[in-house]
Amino acid sequence: MAHKRPQQIPKTHERAVGPRGVDTKANNELFLKEVLNASNKFRAMHGCPALTVNPELNKLAQEWANHLRDNNIMQHRPNPKYGENIFLSGGMDVAGDLPVEMWYREMSSYDFNKAEFVAKSGHFTQLIWKASKEMGAGVARKADKTWVVCNYNPAGNIVGNFKDNVPRKIEQAAGPRGADTNANNEVFLKDVLNTTNKLRAMHGCPALTVNAELNKLAQEWANHLRDKNIMQHRPNPKYGENIFLSGGMDVEGELPVNMWYREINSYNFDKAEFVPTAGHFTQLIWKASKEVGTGVARRDDRTWVVCNYNPPGNVGGLFKDNVPQKKL
């Protein structure tokens, strides 16, 4: 009797070696070190002092991460004494920098001029909060899920104190990578193409080639999104389309592609049908697509990215043949 090969747990953050997702002391110590390093990297970008680890906060965060895992829920601790950020990802092979990066990307929802609490950017403002001095982190895993909790002391997100504690990003010394120049955009588009083809190859899908007309089309729509300060797909598109918006102009081309790819967690290879929360992933991998065009537009602290694909993907009834599983 033939046995069906079990489907691999989808990875949300590629790692080179070892069963990272296993709950072992060594794995968790490495994970927490990555959380700390990523946190301090982002804080430094805003001129905020580095956090130090508090063992009691580590213990507190681990207890709550275990509670979330054991009850299979995602919610903040009621009436917390300390600041708290939480994260849940499908997939156990998660690196410590991923939750921190996701919290930081909430910057796109924060208005530095108003300098007030916004629910959609609460993780970002706590992460950066200048007056916070210590942190603790906990990670818990179960089946194909990973829960992460970070606690901060003193707590952030204090009403009336945002102006002093959530400073803008400091200009980078190495040059304005985020500036809209031909040289910067050419590097960006090359990064997008290379990352796209690397991920497609992992699924046995042929490399895409650049189409100049698709580049022009994608750039026009990226400019439109920037000029209108909106985020939406082109109505009735002739070609396949992926779109991305990030807070911060210093964005590299691999970022939007990796974010689209992480939607693999929402896709069911056995059902092989369209899923709105995995539409960027399936278009990215779509085997029958041959060409791609990319546009990038920047304004203030935001970056819009548009990719168009020909032939378009996400065609009903064709998912089985065009969205293959990752090769072993």
TrEMBL record:
SUPFAM superfamilies per UniProt: PR-1-like (SSF55797)
User: Which keywords appear in this protein's UniProt record, sorted alphabetically?
Assistant: Secreted
Where can this protein be found?
Answer: Secreted
Location of the SCP domain: 30-160, 187-317
Domain of life, per UniProt, equals Eukaryota
Q: InterPro entries per the record?
A: Allrgn_V5/Tpx1_CS, CAP_dom, CAP_sf, CRISP-related, SCP_GAPR1-like, V5_allergen-like
What's the main place this protein lives?
A: secreted
Q: A Gene Ontology CC term for this entry?
A: extracellular region
One Pfam match, given by its short name, reads: CAP
Q: Does the keyword Cell cycle apply?
A: no
Q: Where is this region: Disordered?
A: 1-21
Protein name, as recorded: Uncharacterized protein isoform X1
Q: Which organism is it from?
A: Drosophila kikkawai (Fruit fly)
The organism's lineage is: Eukaryota, Metazoa, Ecdysozoa, Arthropoda, Hexapoda
